[in-house]
Design a protein that fits this description.
By secondary structure, this protein is mainly β. The protein starts with a strand and ends in a 49-residue tail after the last strand. About 10% of the residues are buried. The protein has a five-stranded antiparallel beta sheet, with no helix packed on it. It contains no helices and five strands. The protein has two domains: about 55 residues, Beta Complex (Metal Binding Protein, Guanine Nucleotide Exchange Factor, Chain A); about 40 residues, no CATH class.
Length: about 100
Amino acid sequence: MVPWGTFAAHSFAIVRGALTQYRSSPRVMRGFCATCGSSLTYRRDDRSDELDVTLSSLDEPAALVPEVHIWVQDKLPWVMIVDGRPQFAQSRIDPPAPGSSAP
């Protein structure tokens, strides 16, 4: 399980090190650290104005509070999401996950 944050692509910058990118599928570009291989970013061509960033790669990841949970259809059965935040089976534009408090 990896928490991601979504940012406006134009307002995000790598301030230390170098981002290496790899096209993992026809519409997806993934970024990773060229030195250690850590996963850092995810960008879809159809959402090119947004950039998903692994929160664990940020200096202060706890400073960001989640708004929603997405891709909950893929969570392991023993993972319980009980914080009351909206949950979506896949992306935010999909219908809410069964049993979710999403609007």
